[in-house]
Design a protein that fits this description.
Blueprint (H helix, E strand, L loop, with lengths): L1 H26 L36 H37 L1 H6 L1 H4 L7 H12 L3 H27 L3 H8 L4 H12 L1 H24 L11 H9 L7 H28 L1 H4 L2
Helix pairs in contact: 1-2, 1-11, 2-6, 2-9, 5-6, 6-9, 7-8, 9-10, 9-11, 10-11
Amino acid sequence: MRLARAKGLRRLILPAGVVSLIVLVALAAPLLPLPDPIRQDVAQRLAGPMSGSWLGRDEFGRDVLSRLIWGARTSLSVAFASAVVAGLFGVTLGLIGGWTRSWGAFLTVRSVEIIMCFPPVLLALLVVTLLGPGAGTLLLVLSVLYVPGFARVTYAEVLAVKGRDYVEATRALGATSTHLLFRTVLPNIAGPLLVQFSLAVAAAVVIESGLSFLGLGVVPPSPSWGLMIRGARATMEQAPLLLLWPCAALTLTILAMNLLCDALRDLLDPRTAEH
C-alpha cells in the first residue's frame, strides 16, 4: 500500500507542477512586464520573434506572448469558476439525493440527468446562440453542463458510505442530518469529488476554446486561445508560428490536466491503490 501511494505521489508531481505553473503565470499576468494584449501596431504586423516581443506579433500587430498569458487567464478563470459553481450545485443535489433516496433522488439527481441527454457542445452552442457570446454566458453554460457529473458522483459516493460504522456512530451520538452530511459524509467523499473537479476544469477549457474559435465564446478584442487560433488560420502560410503558439499552449494545458486527473484518481481511489 505504501509503495503504491509513493508511486502515485511521484506520478502526481510533474502534472501538478505544470498545472500550478500555468495557473500562477495566468494569475500574475497583471504584474508581469507585458505589453498591452489588445494594443495594435500595424507596422509590426506578422513580425517574427524579436527583442521586446519574444513570440512575435499577430495579424494586427499585437504581442503574441502577452495574448497567450492573458488568454490563459481568461480560459482558466472561466473554467475554474464554472467548475466551482457546478460543484456547489451538483454536490448539494447529490448529497440530498443520496441521503434521502426515493423522492430526494428523483427530484435532484434524476432531474439533472436530463441535461446529459444532450451532447455538451450542441447544448452549449444552442444556449450561446440564444443568449449571445461572452464570458458570462460561457460561465452559465459550462456550469449547467457539469452539474450532472458532480451530482452523480456525489450520489454514488453517499450511497457507498452512508451505512458505514463511523456514520452510524455519529448518528447514535445525536448528530443531525445536516451535521452528518457536511461534517461526516462530505469529508470522506472529497477524493472522488476532487477528481471530478479536475476533469470538469479540463473539459471546460476545451469547450471554451472551441466556442471562442467559432466566434461564440469570448468577445474580441479580449484575448483567448480559441480566438488566437481562429485569427491565425488566415495567415498560417505567412506566419505559421502564430498558429503553433496557442495550439501548443492549449495542448500542454489539457495534457497536464488530464495527467493530473489520472494521478489523483490513482492516488485517492483505494481500489486502485491496492494493486
